[in-house]
Every structure is written in C-alpha cells, then in structure tokens.
Amino acid sequence: MLKNPIPKVTNKLQYRAIGIVNSKFIPHDNEQLNRGYLTDKKGEKIETVVLGKALSLIKRHIDLKKSYFWIVYPKNKNTQNLHLQVIGIWDPYRLNDFQNDSSKTNFSKLLEELDLKDNYFSVRGELVFVNIQKKEIVIKICSVSKLKNYKNKNFKLVIKGELPLELLNCFVSLDVIRDGNTLKLINCEVIEKNLSKKN
Q1: What is the pTM of this model?
Q2: CA–CA dist 184, 176 (Å, integer)
Q3: What is the dotted CATH code of the domain comprising 16-117?
C-alpha cells in the first residue's frame, strides 16, 4: 500500500495547511539539525525548522547531500517570506517497509498516482481577507490542539490569488502550489458558506 504524504480529509470542516517539497535540507549548524533551510532544484532557499519526530528521522536516515520529499507545514506573514516546518519525509520504500529498490523509483510518478506533485499544498480554512489590488487572499487556519495556552492555536496564511469577495467567511479547500517563497492559488472549492455566523 502506497502511503499518501498528504492524508485524505477525515472531517468536512477539517482545517489544515500541509504540503510536499522536494529539496535538500541544509542546517544552519551541523550540531543543531532542527533549523536551516530547504533548497530546491532552482537554488531557492526557504527558512525551515524541523519538528520533533522528523528530527530523529534526519539523524538516523538522511544523507544531507541528497534531495528528499519533505512533508511540511507552511507559515508566512506575506507572499514573499515562506517559512516551513518539516513534520516528515516521504520515501515510500525506505520509511514505509515497502519492499522495492528505491534507486530505480521515480517518486514524481508515484506522487502523480496519488494526485499530488512536488511543491503541492493542501490548505483548508476560513477565507478572512481578500486584497483585490494585490491579488492576495488570507486563510485562517485553526489548530485542533485542545491546550488552552497553546500559543500558535490559529494562524493565517497569505496566498497569491484571486477569489470573489462574496466568499469571505466561507470555509474553503484550496489547491496551492509553491513558487519560490510564494504560495499560489490553483483551485478553490467552497465547503461551507458563512462560517462565522454559525460559530
């Protein structure tokens, strides 16, 4: 069974922002592997932190000279400064007990079988802002964490793209692609209208 790096949605109003990026991880410091940047084939660098579980994978399995498919959470303050949090590595053979010779594998083809591709992000949340002049939208994403004092409970993602103003406060599911340090809207599906009135 081929494991999907971006799992299927389990709840209609499931918030999320998750993506997959093929790149090399370059730590700021070889002693501390949790901070650095991902560098893609074009040489674009994205500031990156590695979260808990993924850190032990990096220490045990990863050759920092090679590119991998990283499963990441995106964060940004504007459309020019993407920041990624690595939560895992998608390697169907080495990390999923998939019996095969991974040196002969075309990962891009495997991703296509799952309807995914490099630099794809799935973003689901409430459309809270539309900037018609700049062609930007802002999506609010709520964390499922039940911890009261959890700091980053909700966050907003700025995405390059155009959506009509009447979709404000709707819960939307977006297909987004990364271009350098910018997230660009490819497709939008309205899941629920006027979310804020129901809360």
Answers
A1: 0.88
A2: 5
A3: 2.40.50.140
